[in-house]
Amino acid sequence: MSLGTSDTLVYLIAIPLFSSAFLLLGGRALDRVGHLIGTAASASSFVVALIELNKMLAREAESRGVTQHLFTWINVGSFQVDATLLLDQLSICFVLLITGVGTLIHIYSISYMAHDIDRRRFFAFLNLFIAAMLLLVLGNSYLNLYVGWEGVGLASYLLIGFWNQKPTYATAAKKAFVANRVGDVGLSLAVMIAFVQFGSVTFDGVAKGIAAGSASSTALNAMGAAILLAAVGKSAQFPLQAWLGDAMAGPTPVSALIHAATMVTAGVYLISRSNFVFDNAPTAQLLVVIVGAVTLLFGAVIGMAKDDIKKALAASTMSQIGYMILATGLGPAGYAFAMMHLLTHGFFKAGMFLGAGSVMHGMNDEVDMRKYGALRKVMPITFATFGLGYLAIIGIPPFAGFYSKDKIIETAFNAGGSKGIILGCVTLLGAAITAFYMTRVMLMTFFGTKRWDAAAHPHESPWLMTVPMILLAIGSITTGFIFSNGDRLKNFLAPVVDKDHHEHETELLAPIVVTGLAMFAVAIGISIAFAKYGRKTIPASAPTDVTMWTKVARRDLLQDDFNESVFMRPGQSLTRVLAFLDKRVVDGAVSGVGAMTLRLAGDLRKTQTGYVRSYALLILLGTVAILTAILVVTL
Amino acid sequence: MNPMNYIYLSCILFSLGAAGVLLRRNAIVVFMCIELMLNAANLAFVTFSRMNGTLDGQIVAFFTMVVAACEVVVGLAIIVTIYRSRRSASVDDARLLRL
């Protein structure tokens, strides 16, 4: 498959990147137009993406990928890394999601951040994120991807800590940064393994190397595990999931764009992009499935216990990405469905986050759902768009989430043997829990009785905020059908993720049975939630007489306690020991030599009396001693 | 006469000189004692020259005298200057050069 070339790919990245630099360097003079420039840059990038999509669709399915060589980055001996962009079927999905949803969120932010004095800086960071994320998905090698990977990590850090005047927010940003660094070690290991095994770090080079059989299965499994570690860090998967809840400290548009729709799905992209590795590394692939399944339930359980609307949505994001990771671990059958769920999730979850932001906007930035209630009448548009996102995420047909999640459940059941049955049950259970906690969020926020603070005067948000929400809600309705109708997305992606056209294995359950089971699970989840939160009045503060399990779930399943007791405190003790050793042993040796010299000199100094006669005596004694020594030696 | 007697005399003179340098405080006396030690050494040189039948020792004695003469010039000048400024010729008084 020879790839064509394109001269316009670079504009995708360059426009938001230059806009970001311009806004940051421009200073206060740009405060009045900064948001417009930022939004225009993102929108321009989206237009370029649409043009690229149009050009791509005009080509044959096998030669849709295009590359653009920018410059030779590293050239050492036989090792050469080019800064080359690659736009293929997989990248274009991401590019459209990033720029499309990104532009909507830019528009939303104009109004949401209107009263923030640092709005220009906010838009500069958003543009920086867009540029870095585009570089991540457009790089043609693991090393180019790495640059974007770190770029989005930086943007995420800057935006989580955007209100860093609050120490807890700054800490949350730091936590996200540190957790991401742990994952990044995995990516750098993967790059090194690729270089050692194949002498190349481009996706194409690695794929060819694997096809030629130049790597042992151990090496491939190690590379797969390293890639998984990277994905786990970036996508907030078990066991590096703890940062995502705290990342909600950032402004809500950031949560919607970075921590729901795009950046946290970079792990899914990385695994899908590395399909040639995982298809030949069964152990690593099994690990992927396990991580996905564990996180799916982990996030869902946390989601049940959260009263903070953004943290409930964050837990939900974690869980939904668990679905995607699980799907990517199911091999060629799953990649396309993972991507489909990623795209539909990008719409409905971003929409719901924007809805949550709209609610917060109307409620004086209150995030506790126990202080909401009965908002559907005062915020009809927010209620409608959030409700459509809700129907999409729990998987009610014909909304978007139904198509993508149903396919993942179906593929999980068809994974074969006991693995298939376990995974199928896990995904079904996840669907039921999802239905429960999302219904809970809906009921607590929009239904029931008013539990508002006295100072709260909820009102519908301005049109700059509602229009993006409406557009995303339309996406939550339509995208599932569009993508799955005639397996459109699957066939579109097949040249990248399923080159050999794997035939489906025997089906364990007929699709209609799976759909029925999923609907049944969702119905159970909804009815339990309705019984618990719809019929009874909701107390304005969280009940304290709850079971131990609820307490554990409220504490995020002890993820922070675990990290603190296993990593943080021993790490702090270790640094204390090292600091002590440095101070006492290393510094002690150095300053000991100095102190010894000083004391010796102080003692010797006392011989300098100033009396000439004592000097003369010393000379005499010295002479006598030397002469005596000579005599003793010679005799 | 046995030349060893001159060596003994030289030893006595040197010891007298050394004792004077160590024990006396007056700079002039100390100075003279130094001269005594130098001349004791000169006497030993000359005696050894005589005993060995060579002229080396006598030549060195001349050098010593030249050095001693120079030393007197410098030394006396220093002593006089110190005396002028401090009204004292005691070597123990001049002990500013210490730590």
From TrEMBL, chain A:
Residues 73-123 form the NADH-Ubiquinone oxidoreductase (complex I) chain 5 N-terminal domain. Keywords: Membrane, Transmembrane, Transmembrane helix. The chain crosses the membrane at residues 6-26, 33-51, 89-110, 122-139, 145-164, 185-203, 254-272, 284-305, 378-400, 420-443, 463-483, 508-531, 615-634. This is Unannotated protein. NCBIfam families: NDH_I_L, PRK06590.1. It is a multi-pass membrane protein. One of its GO terms (molecular function) is NADH dehydrogenase activity. GO terms for biological process: ATP synthesis coupled electron transport; electron transport coupled proton transport.
UniProtKB/TrEMBL annotation, chain B:
This is Unannotated protein. It is found in: Membrane. One of its GO terms (biological process) is ATP synthesis coupled electron transport. The keyword Transit peptide does not apply. The keyword Amino-acid biosynthesis does not apply. The chain crosses the membrane at residues 6-23, 28-48, 60-83. Keywords: Membrane, NAD, Translocase, Transmembrane, Transmembrane helix, Transport. Its main location: membrane. Belongs to the complex I subunit 4L family. The lineage of its organism: unclassified sequences, metagenomes, ecological metagenomes. One of its GO terms (cellular component) is NADH dehydrogenase complex. GO terms for molecular function: oxidoreductase activity, acting on NAD(P)H. Signal peptide: none annotated. InterPro entries: NADH_UbQ_OxRdtase_chain4L/K, NUOK/Mnh_C1-like. It is a multi-pass membrane protein.
